[in-house]
Amino acid sequence: MTEPMLKTGKRPAQYHPELTRLVDIKTSIGLATPIYKSSFGYGNDFHNGPTGWKILGNGPPDDNSIPQADAAALQGAGDCAWAGSAHETMLLCKNARRPVPKFTGLNILQQYSAYSGYDLVTGANDNGSDVVEVLKWRQTKGLVDASGGIHKIGVFVSLEVGNLTELWEALYYFDTVGLGINFPESAMTQLNQGQIWSVVSGAQIEGGHYIPLVGRPTANTWTCITWGQRQIMTEQFVTTYMDEAYCYITLERYNAVTGETPQGVKDYDLEKYLYSLPKQ
Predict the structure, then answer these.
(1) Distance between CA atoms of residues 196 and 202, nearest Å
(2) CA nearest 86: which of 171, 24, 149?
(3) N or C: which end of the chain has fewer CB atoms below 10 A?
(4) For position 231, which CATH number holds?
(5) Distance of alpha carbon 261 from alpha carbon 264, whole angstroms
(6) What angle do CA 31, 244, 137 make, to 5 degrees?
């Protein structure tokens, strides 16, 4: 059976000197390493596939939202930074016991089109996305769900590439981390065969890919959401292919009733500090 044509779509990581780094914030406020279990996360918040996470335009649609006239969109596009943003929003709202917004493949591809000029009919301008530009878009314009709801983020900070301790802490503090990777061809084969992503010697890089990091099921593995499903990857895979990562604050992390995060805190020191920073 022919496997579906799943697409990457992250542009190469760029240096952004204007961005605040998480390591600098930790130093300035004396942020301590949190005490928590080595395994945690939220990868099972939704089912894999069309009744749960959904592909959201990053491959052949699984939700019947795209009209037949949009011929190129029916094959999928390189909108991973937008599909991943929607998956993050779904997760954060569910964890905070807020109503979970509905996103569709068409709804997300239309926003990718507004950003890049992508043509849903011809496939022109399917050139992927710069992750920092997408984060800034989410700050100012917000990610729009299929019902017209707008979901904005606050200040975001960058993480040190390859620093797994920082990645571990950021995932705990923020529930999700936007991870950019150089995607090897071997990982697509592993995905299609239901295998953990691991490093395969000699594998060629197919392009850049954006994945929301959502958990650490064991001390040596990590979990992300990609192409509408939960995917586990080894620690070596992360350190080998990671080329950028970001975490951010958003009011959608707070329970609408209690005003607390899933960790049971209010006005967390890190978040108070981030709110005091000038927006990028």
Answers:
(1) 17
(2) 149
(3) N
(4) 3.90.70.10
(5) 5
(6) 90
Residue 223 token pair: 């979990």
What's the pLDDT tens digit per position in 182-209? 999 999 999 999 999 999 999 999 999 9
- Give how many domains the chain has, as a whole number: 1
If residue 158 lies in a helix (H) or strand (E), which one and from where to where? Answer: strand 156-158
Q: H helices within the chain, ranges in order?
A: 22-29, 80-95, 105-116, 131-140, 164-174, 185-192, 235-241, 269-276
pTM: 0.91
Q: Is residue 120 part of a domain?
A: yes
Instruction: Please tell me the number of Cα atoms within 13 Å of 125 on its side-chain side.
Output: 12
Q: Quick check: is 118 in a domain?
A: yes
| Strands (DSSP E) found in 171-228 | 177-184, 205-218, 221-226
Q: Which residues pair with 247 in a beta bridge?
A: 157
Q: What is the pLDDT of residues 127-170, one digit of tens each?
A: 999 999 999 999 999 999 999 999 999 889 899 999 998 898 88
